[in-house]
Structure formats: C-alpha cells, structure tokens
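Page 42, continued from yesterday. The earlier attempt failed because a stray header line got pasted into the input along with the sequence. Redoing it now with the clean sequence only.
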Amino acid sequence: MRLLLTGGCGFIGSAVVRHAIRHTDHVLLNLDKMTYAASEDALDTARQDPRHTLLRADIADAAAVRQAFAAFQPDAVMHLAAESHVDRSIDGPGPFIQTNIVGTYVLLEAARDYWAQLPPARRDTFRFHHVSTDEVFGALGPADPPFTETTAYDPRSPYSASKAASDHLVRAWQHTYGLPTIVSNTCNNYGPWQFPEKLIPLILLNALEGKRLPVYGDGSNQRDWIFVEDHAAALLRVVADGQPGATYAIGARQPRSNLAVVRAICAALDARLPDPAGPRERLIGFVTDRPGHDFRYEIDPSRTEAALNWRAPHDFETGLARTIDWYLAHRPWWEAIRAARYAGQRLGNAA
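This time it went through. Structure tokens are written below.
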C-alpha cells in the first residue's frame, strides 16, 4: 500500500510509521508541518528506510497537499495531523481551528479531486482514514456506559470541538461526494516519544527531577488508556481492512483515575530509582481545575475488536513499565526538550 500519512512525526503518527516500516511492506509519504510537538527522532530507523519519505508541509497549504497527492499517488490516506493539547486550546484556540478544521477540509478536497481521477479499480479500493478522539463525545458520569461508535457528539473544549467538526466534515464528504472515508476514535495514548507536556511523561519527568506533580482538582477525573504501539497497530488494521462509512472505537479497556495514574508512576519510579528524600507521592500537589474539565472518558472497543480481529495486547501496568523504562533510557531527547523548548511554559497535565 502507498500510504499518505499526515502528522507522522507526532506522537501517534510516528508510532504508525515505525510499526508500518517494521511490520508491513507499505510505502509511506509522511506529510508533517513539524510543529513544537513533532520529532524526526521519533521515526527511529524509518528515517533511513527507502520506503519512508518525510515531506515538511502544512495540511492547510492546498497547493502543497495537492502536489503531494499528484507526486506520490497514494492508495490510502491516514490523517493524524492535529493540534491536540486541551490546555493549549483553552489558552489559544486559533491554531486548533486552522489545523483541525481548515486543514482537514483542505486535505479532503485534495483527496476528493485525486480520487475522482483514479481508474475504477483503484478508486474502489482507495480509503481516507481520519483519526480522531473520544473527547468528541463529551463527558461520562460515574455510572454511564462507555462510549461506542454510536455515541452522540457533545464536545466540551475548543480542542474537542475542533476534532468533532473535522469528524463531521469527513463523514459529509462521503455522504455528499462518495469519498470512501473511515473514522476512528480512540482514548488517551501513552508510550515512548510522547511530548513532555502530556500527563504521563510530565509526571514521570517531574518525579524524576524531584519537582511538583500537578494534579487537577482532586484527581478523580478518569481516562481510558491505550499503549501507543497498540493503537498504531490497530490504525494500520483499520486503513487496510476497514469499511467505508464505518466508525471504529479503539480502546484497551484500561480506565484509571488521574490520581491513580500519578501514584502508579511514583511507585514504579520508586522501585527503579529510590529517592533518598522519600516516596515520590510526597510531590503530588492538587491545582485549580481547568475550565470545563470533563469528568470521565471510556471506550467500549467490542465492535472494533470483532470487526478487525484485534485486541490491545498491553495492559496498563505493562505498558507503563515499558514507557518508564524508555524515558529512563532516552534522557538526552527529553532533557533537550525541557531545557530548550519547554522551559518557562506553563506546566499542566493533559487529563
């Protein structure tokens, strides 16, 4: 498969690139704007693999996107490029509107024109896979059933509203123009190469450095967690075997409260590198909750598991252990980010 991937130097996108190069014969064009959260290092050995090409371009640049389609001639598109940090969307929603909504529109129009000119056999097998989030569904109460593919949309933040809008655009381009689109929604991802403003790496690295561990509210907000490499494998299964018009809810059945996640990180790090000053839970500090903080997200992946014969192999404890070990072994990468690009910015967590 010739796969045009957007955002392939981001956290989830780079995991898809790595997985595709290691486990498939796909040829990839990786279109990435290379914003603050992108890392070419995260591509690992794919950087030198002849089946992977990195194109530095903005998905909102119509000319660049159309040229990419014409030159690469993809069999499928996997659209991951997005602004994704909720706190940043609250501080400044403009980039989220531009990238997540306008950028998706530009990409859809380029894909539609390209698809319409394909020979019938290639047109029938072409796919446009849009990767989204469970946050478009709003918040769950303590006793509510988990989100499914048919849950009504109820976004609560500028980020989730922008992703909901992009989901609607993708579905509209199928219903109106016949473009064979697929949407997948997933829960919180974690794992290697995640930018250090997200909850798990932020807490891990702060704990390692003896800094405050900020937790919103009382820490009772709950999230569902999936190891990023499991999500990457599922996404490649969706783009290869998913049906046009379908939605796939991708999760790992691993819900945790934010406070439980923070405590698990502290315990795991204490076991590896004990702090002479005492257990790292002493560093936990509760901070003012962010505006509109959704209480709970959780995905029921049953339909996706059955449709794709897939199930996430990592439980949270195993995935967290792999994540912690990776960060401990890759200090130069995250130390450079915290020193040069992250220092001085407001510390927040992503959950």
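Notes: Residues 342-351 have pLDDT under 50 and may be disordered.
Reminder to self: strip header lines before submitting.
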